[in-house]
Amino acid sequence: MKRFKSHAAGLAIAAVGLFGLGTASADNSPLRIGILSPSTGASAYSGLSFEQGARLALEPFVRSGMNGHPVKITFYDTEGASPKAAQLFNRLVDNDDVHVVIGPVNSGESLAAAPVAAQRKVSMLCVCSAEAITKPVNPYVFGLAPVDATVTTELLDVLKSRGVKKAGLIYSLDAFGQSGGKMLEAKAKDFGIDLVAVETFAPQDTNMTPQLLKIRDKSPDGIMLWSAANPAPAIIMKSIKELGIKSQVYLGNAAAFNNFAESAGAAADGAYVTSLPILAPEVLADGDRRKAIVSDFVKSFKARYNTAPEQTAGGAMDAVTILEAAVKQINGPITRESVRGAIDKVSMCGAYGCRKFTAEDHRGHGKDPATVLMQIKDAKWVAIK
């Protein structure tokens, strides 16, 4: 299969100094990579696309090696369970002797696995946004998704630009929901937005009507919904329509998955969602360093799987790109510590933005916007320029 441009050839332009200039190591020790992803269970909507993205990105290296090193991958399904993610991380270390782990996908699993990564001294490239995963810095944990502080700011900026003065907020009481929800509460006034109602729900709840009635009573201009995509946002959108609530709804990037748009159906029509640009790379400016990289990956993904990638597939692509950049810096045997030290110096652009890792910053994102604004129309994503 033709390698897509997010690897060395394409990123030589976007990532200064780390691509295209390395030479194959004289040492040909193998690189063993573990992948943790919820490919079944409630989180399979994000995990399966992540697994597919990782396998697609790693395929040329499994076939031909990475900078002279044979590559072996081992995949485990976390089933969306945080304790299992930690257990499987240990299995990857003990049974499969991996040098690095790609995943987990969500914040809850990543929070469970992060202490294991530190204890076992094995690097983890996780697709997670909860700031607590990388702050304070864990030497062995690298977060690929923009942190909640960034995405909540961008969401509030959308409301401000659309003239929202009074807003309601409803968020989930899990690790992801509480992290972002509390940030939205704390920062709303800075954007000239009066939070007239704040409600919460448990991730397993199936009836949020009482909370939504309280929000409706305050007549907000807009409603912010901060939750992972399955299944709560679809339930809430349907309840909003049934209750006749006319307020515009704005959702964070964790809801930007196809299963949300499909599950909510007509009830989500017109809702705004901040999303990573992989859902619509054409919305990126021609001069954006991410555009060609992400567009090429999306084409490769569609050709292989006959479906569009979810946001998490882009995170898998970025993880492989980061790992390739790191391995090119290693002269000598591949070890867990040499991999970790090399990742600490990677600079690159990809689906989750442009970044430069340092020992003090294991997100590495700059000031460029991380998300783009999407709107749901007829269960499809439409980019808003």
Please give a handful of descriptors for the protein shown.
385 residues; Rossmann fold
Structure description:
The structure is a single chain. The chain has helices at residues 8-14, 44-64, 82-94, 107-120, 148-161, 175-187, 209-217, 232-242, 258-264, 291-305, 311-327, 336-343, and strands spanning 31-37, 71-77, 100-102, 123-126, 141-143, 166-172, 194-201, 222-226, 248-251, 272-275, 347-350, 353-356, 372-377, 380-384. It is α/β, with parallel strands linked by helices. The protein folds into 2 domains: 8-146 and 285-356, Response regulator (Rossmann fold); 149-275, Response regulator (Rossmann fold). Strand 11 and strand 12 (353-356) form a beta hairpin. 54% of the residues are buried.
TL;DR?
The protein is an alpha/beta fold.
**Level-1 CATH class name of the largest domain:** Alpha Beta
- Give the domain tally: 2
- The tally of strands reads 14
Q: Give Rg in angstroms.
A: 20 Å
Q: What's the order of the H and E elements?
A: HEHEHEHEEHEHEHEHEHEHHHEEEE
The DSSP helix count reads 12
- As residue ranges, the low-confidence spans are 1-25
The H-level CATH homologous superfamily of the largest domain, spelled out, is Response regulator
Please give the alpha-carbon distance between the first and last residues.
34 Å
Major β-sheet, in short? 7 strands, mixed
CATH third-tier fold name of the largest domain: Rossmann fold
Portion in helices = 25-40%
Q: Kindly estimate the percentage of residues that lie in beta strands according to DSSP.
A: 15-25%
Structural class: alpha/beta
- Overall pLDDT level: 90
Q: Judging by the overall fold, what is the CATH architecture of the largest domain?
A: 3-Layer(aba) Sandwich
**Shape, per Cα inertia axes:** globular
Read across the widest sheet, the strand sequence of neighbours is: 7-6-8-9-10-13-14
